[in-house]
Amino acid sequence: MIVTKSTGIVRFYHATRYSLKGIRAAYASEPAFRYEVWVALPMLVLAFFIAHSGLQLSLLIASLLLVLIMELVNTAIEAVVDRAGTEFHELAGLAKDLGSAAVFFALLVAGVIWLGVIWDNGLQRWLFG
Predict the structure, then answer these.
(1) How far is CA 107 from the centre of its chain?
(2) Other Cβ atoms within 10 Å of 33 Cβ, number
(3) Residue 125 burial class via C-beta count within 10 angstroms: exposed 0-12, middle 13-18, buried 19 and up
(4) Along the 129 residues of the chain, how does pLDDT read in single tens digits?
(5) Which of 46, 71, 80, 74 is nearest to 60 (CA)?
(6) Which of 40, 75, 81, 104 has its CA 20 to 30 A from that of 34?
(7) What gap in Å lies between CA 106 and CA 101, rounded to an integer?
(8) How confident is the model at residue 117, as a pLDDT?
(9) Interior/surface letters 74-99, b for 16+ CB within 10 angstroms, e for the rest
(10) Which pTM value belongs to this model?
(11) Which one of 3.40.50.2300, 3.60.10.10, 3.40.50.150, 1.10.287.3610 gives the CATH number of domain 30-128?
């Protein structure tokens, strides 16, 4: 039996549905993802007040999205590792730790970007006259 894949707008529609299903599943099952979403929402609004240019706004928003992306990737890694077996394996632990490290670095990147934009937009003048 030959299965033909959808193309064009139908493929886009199905891909979007699968993506939204994944986001809902992560939100429902992963407390860390929920926390990050609830922190990102007010920060998203705040970004419009902090940014002085489109580039700054883009960087602030992209840094928030990067954290959510890395949390989704980490969740996917954990799901695959957990599916492979329940017994402890050194490589399974390594995979989970590396996924967590990716989230940690995404949080650092977001922090650096937000602090850099805030610094450029007046914090250094306020601190140092």
Answers:
(1) 9
(2) 21
(3) exposed
(4) 676 777 789 889 999 999 999 999 999 999 999 999 999 999 999 999 999 999 999 999 999 999 999 999 999 999 898 887 777 788 888 999 999 999 999 999 999 999 999 999 987 666 665
(5) 46
(6) 81
(7) 9
(8) 96
(9) bbebbeebeeeeeeeeeebeebeeeb
(10) 0.85
(11) 1.10.287.3610
Residue 83's pLDDT is 80
User: Look-up: residue for tokens 């970007």?
Assistant: 113
Catalytic residue among 71, 78, 87, 90: 71
Distance, CA of 19 to CA of 24 (rounded, Å) = 9
Asked if 40 and 68 count as a contact pair (C-beta separation under 8 A), the reply is yes
Residue 73 in contact with residue 99, Cβ under 8 Å?
yes
What are the φ and ψ backbone dihedral angles of 45, each rounded to 5 degrees? -65, -45
Separation CA 73–CA 62 (nearest Å): 16
Q: What is the pLDDT of residue 8?
A: 85
